[in-house]
Design brief:
Elements (H helix, E strand, L loop, with lengths): L1 H8 L6 H48 L9
C-alpha cells in the first residue's frame, strides 16, 4: 500500500527500508503477543489449579478429615 502511494505521488522516495522496518516491527509484535497469550493461558490454568486445591483443603478442614502425616 505504501508503494502504491509512493507511485501515486511521483516522489523520488525509496520506501523499501521503511516497509522492511514496519514488517520487522510487526513480526516482533506478533511474537510478543503470542508469548503473552501463552503466559496468560498458563496463569489461568495455574489459578484454576490453586482454586481447586484451596477448595479441596477447605472441604477437608470443614469435615475434620486430615491427610496422614499432616500436623493436627
Amino acid at each position: 500500500e505504501l508503494c502504491r502511494i509512493n507511485e501515486d505521488q511521483k516522489v523520488a522516495l525509496d520506501l523499501d527500508p521503511y516497509v522492511k522496518k514496519l514488517l520487522n516491527a510487526r513480526r516482533r509484535v506478533v511474537l510478543v503477543n503470542n508469548i503473552l497469550q501463552n503466559a496468560q493461558e498458563r496463569l489461568r490454568r495455574l489459578n484454576h489449579s490453586v482454586a481447586k486445591e484451596t477448595a479441596r483443603r477447605r472441604a477437608m478442614l470443614d469435615s475434620g478429615v486430615y491427610p496422614p502425616g499432616s500436623p493436627s
